[in-house]
Amino acid sequence: MSAWVLITGGSRGIGAATALRCAEAGWDVAINYAQDSGAAQALAARLHGLGRRALPIQADVADPAQVGAMFEKLDAAGGRLAGLVNSAGIVAPAARLEAMTPERWRRLFDVNVMGTLLCCQQAARRMSTARGGAGGAIVNLSSRAAEFGSAGIYVDYAATKGAVDTLTKGLGRELIGEGIRVNGVRPGIIETDIHATSGMLERAQAQVKDIPMQRMGRAEEIAEAIVWLLSDASSYTVGTLLDVAGGR
Ligand code: NAP
């Protein structure tokens, strides 16, 4: 029986493209989503069509109880969890610091940072060779914003991704002795719904002139990097942040 990869935010955007590539590469795929069950079910049907198991699981990654229940559902499905992709993430509309609210910061950090921490913890408990597991690979979605800081746009979002970068480097070193490779991918500006849902589609389009390749990336181009980091082809890559950003 093949192994499971759990992809948080797997129903749309980069997560969905990753789910498809993972299925093509032989993974069974657990598709986490927050609200849009239609998108998750439609994607699951496509993965079934590729001959893979596919399990949509609704859970808010910011909620410890819901994350715990999500992993228990996956346990109940049977089979080994060998991969985790933390792709669930949110942005907020462009604003300067003085116009932001504590509620906005709390939600951004809860989803982007707490969500990643909670899912890494649950996965590590199952994968760790020190706990009887068989090892695995974790890929965290960060952003090039972690380096640029996104001044005047969303310094808070950039700060959440800076935290994801630091977590990825530290966990990479902490868990490698237990057979778990942790790495991160830092996309540039990628064509997904995230820009429109945060009211920033025009801003994203205006930034294209600053990208050396002069175009946005496609979700599939990020998925390729993620699937490589999940696979044994990247067996000597640990605690690394891979920029996939058209030269930006
Ligand atoms: P997207 O198209 O907006 O998709 C977001 C996905 O995350 C959806 O499946 C959504 O589920 C899920 N989600 C949102 N909040 C969640 C929560 N609290 N719990 C569980 N699932 C949740 O996003 P994307 O553009 O693919 O981005 C994926 C990741 O890449 C994010 O971490 C983002 O920060 C990062 N990234 C994106 C870009 C870019 O330009 N697109 C650039 C750099 C980094 P529902 O549909 O059910 O809400």
Automatic annotation (TrEMBL):
Question: Which SUPFAM superfamilies does the protein's record reference?
Answer: NAD(P)-binding Rossmann-fold domains
Recorded superkingdom: Bacteria
* CDD domains the UniProt entry points to: SDR_c (cd05233)
Q: Give the protein name, as stated in the record.
A: NAD(P)-dependent dehydrogenase (Short-subunit alcohol dehydrogenase family)
Alphabetized UniProt keyword annotations: Oxidoreductase
PANTHER family in UniProt? NADPH-DEPENDENT ALDEHYDE REDUCTASE-LIKE PROTEIN, CHLOROPLASTIC-RELATED (PTHR48107), RE15974P (PTHR48107:SF7)
Record's family? Belongs to the short-chain dehydrogenases/reductases (SDR) family.
